[in-house]
Design brief:
Helices cover 39% and strands 15% of the residues. By secondary structure, it is of the alpha/beta class. It starts with 6 loop residues before the first helix and ends with a helix. Bound molecules: pyridoxal-5'-phosphate. Pyridoxal-5'-phosphate (PLP) binds next to helix 4 and helix 8.
């Protein structure tokens, strides 16, 4: 038996100890607290002289199994699971930032992350600057003496622009800034930010980690000393993940490698099909040779991921007609599901931005984002083709 097991096998074989009933699939620990055998065990557990669960806001075995697998996948020492992806963004930032600190963020961050940076953190006098993703040459000039954290998503949503993490992590190290990466779009199967120098990684488990659109959750991963601070904050402020969702996400991880490879294979084929359509202006997919950062994508991501974006000719109205003409794909705000999902960011997720702000992050009126699912590729392409053919003016 080769030791240690390979990543795929560890993701499947890592389990919490049996409850004593010889169950093969881990049981779910639906308990708010854990009882002690005697007063001495209670005292020693609270005093941390012995390890053990106390209360599910602090730790729970079903959640711990999920964390253990995610640590393997992201090659991180430790992690804290929380109730949503946004809770991961906020808990990570709130744990590590002090009043007066400054955050450098890529301009193309998720909508609610933008709200945290612009509306929530300023309450504690924590400021931010946005760095344009396509102009890496200006990033260094945006670092201030009080810059403590740099927060980025790569590939970005929905424009699928990439950030060179090797470059950014050396810039951050030079200025003693922590690098915090949202790895939701790539997943650890395709990209491991810590290998490129990131200090912290976050996920919305809601997306590819669950992969079936069933539940909300998140996780923050990194080195032990940083995660200790995050754990302290989470333990006492209470954004804990439910044991049921921890169990569900852990089971989902058993299929993550297989699922992501198929998502990415289907997505590449859809992207290649879209490039043949004369009524599609631009197709963006990291592993298409036409992607402006194709070389970086090949270096940084094992495959191109499960999301494809394209711009239909005919602008906003055509984009909306295209969605209405789909027969199989779902219209919903989620992504990373086994079901193909199409969204029109300009009229939905990004409609609150000004036209100028949308342009700045690459959201053109006719932009369509497809989270490519696990249906048969011919059915996925067939649905998109049918909708393109039936949405012309
Ligand atoms: C969904 C998402 C989040 C937020 O995750 P929730 O689980 O919905 O809170 C953050 N960043 C990106 C890129 C996302 O796609």
């Amino acid at each position: 038996m080769p030791q240690p097991l390979r990543e795929e096998s560890q993701t499947i074989r890592t389990t919490i100890p049996s409850s004593g009933n010889r169950e093969h699939s881990s049981s779910i620990y639906m308990t708010s607290s854990f009882s002690f055998e005697n007063a001495e065990q209670a005292r020693a557990t609270f005093a941390k002289e012995i390890s053990g669960n106390i209360y599910s806001r602090y730790s729970n075995p079903s959640v711990d199994e999920f964390i253990a697998k995610m640590c393997i996948l992201e090659e991180c020492e430790d992690g804290v699971a929380v109730a949503s992806g946004m809770s991961a963004v906020f808990t990570g930032m709130a744990s590590l930032l002090e009043t007066g600190d400054h955050v450098l963020a890529s301009r193309s961050v998720f909508g609610s992350t933008h709200q945290i940076l612009t509306q929530v953190l300023p309450k504690w006098d924590i400021s931010h600057s946005y760095a344009p993703i396509k102009k890496p040459e200006v990033w260094e000039s945006l670092i201030q003496p009080n810059t403590r954290l740099c927060y980025v998503e790569t590939p970005s949503n929905p424009a699928l622009d990439l950030i060179d993490l090797d470059w950014l992590s050396s810039l951050c190290k030079k200025h003693n800034v922590l690098l915090y990466v949202d790895n939701i779009f790539a997943t650890p199967i395709l990209q491991k930010p810590v290998r490129h120098g990131a200090d912290l990684v976050m996920h919305s488990a809601t997306k590819y980690i669950d992969g079936q659109g069933r539940g909300i959750g998140g996780i923050i991963l990194g080195k032990k000393d940083l995660i200790e601070k995050v754990r302290f904050f989470a333990k006492h402020t209470g954004p804990c993940l439910s044991p049921f969702n921890g169990w569900m996400f852990s089971k989902s991880l058993e299929l993550l490698h297989v699922r992501i490879e198929r998502h990415a294979k289907n997505a590449l084929q859809l992207a290649q099909f879209l490039e043949t359509r004369p009524d599609v202006q631009t197709v963006k997919y990291p592993h298409l040779p036409s992607h402006p950062q194709f070389d970086l994508a090949k270096r940084q991501m094992k495959m191109g991921g499960g999301v494809v974006t394209f711009i239909v000719e005919g602008g906003l109205e055509r984009g909306r007609r295209f969605l209405d003409a789909l027969k199989m794909s779902s219209l919903t705000a989620n992504l990373g599901d086994s079901r193909t999902i199409a969204t029109h960011p300009a009229s939905t997720t990004h409609s609150s931005l000004t036209e100028e702000d949308r342009q700045a992050v690459g959201i053109m009126p006719g932009l369509i984002r497809v989270s490519v699912g696990l249906e048969h590729i011919d059915d996925i392409i067939g649905d998109i083709q049918h909708a393109l053919d039936n949405s012309k003016a």
